[in-house]
Amino acid sequence: MYTPISAPLPMNIISMRLMHHWTTVLSSSLATAPVNIPLLQHHFPQLAFDRPFLLHSMLALSAFHLSLVYPESRENALSATLHRQSALSLLTSLSIGGFDQSVLGIAFLTTTTMTNGFNSPQHHNLIAMLTTIHNIFHGKNYFIFCDQTFLGLNFTSFLSQLQGDVGAPNNLFPAHLLQIHLPDSEIFPEPEELANPRVSDAYRSAVVTLRTAWLFVSLGFESFGAVSWPENFSDKFCALLNEKRPRALVLLYHYCAMLAGTSPACWWARRSGQHMDWIRGVLDEQWRACLHMETAGALVELVE
Known about the structure:
Shape: elongated
InterPro entries: Fun_TF, Sterol_Uptake_Regulator
GO molecular function, one term: DNA-binding transcription activator activity, RNA polymerase II-specific
Pfam families: Fungal_trans_2 (PF11951)
Helix content: 55-70%
Strand content: under 5%
Distance between the termini: 37 Å
Oligomer: single chain
Number of domains: 2
Low-confidence stretches: 1-8, 164-170, 294-299
């Protein structure tokens, strides 16, 4: 267990209440796999007390959650804004690579952005949120930790540990999506879009990364899965998503479906079903038919 070397930062009663909420409620809602609980509930808060950037990032997320639980109170929303601004003001002075406080703080700020996007009644904010996460993480190895305790939080390390640990029925991926990049697919219309190899490859890689995210979520690493898809899809796919291309929206629909099936404890994904309804309304009839393929072999194993 980490033990602070220097004295903890001054904490007022509001900050203490936010940290208490983190340890007793919020920590278990970010990832439900038991292996995550000690880190989220005990180790990270202890690490934060003499690290201002990490502390403000955690308190911002805790306050944002409380603002959703108690919408009649403006205090929590104000605290979320103030702590987020404090964290952002410290971010520019930090060296990112190799410093655990930076990595974790960025992760929690990103989670605040993610929860804000998911819970916004303006559905276009969902795409804006995914774009923001993509721009922050894509092509950068942020999740590299000095503390040996955190090595399992590296996405690549996660995958190597999880290979072969799949077998339950809910660990299945919609098989028809594996054809979304194929010009000769009989499932998806408008094959002419795929004449450009860059476009076809963007959809192919987006499906691969969505399948990986599905694996994370199915095994109780929900927030990692939610971030890993926008982190790892390509710049080209990000552009197609912002153009609201039907193929991109079909994948976005299944991303939301993935999160709609998470544990009720994952409050941050609770509006995923509403986003699915919005996407269904944006697509025309021929593309809506591609959202659900009730055919034999409609699901495939996440890990083959």
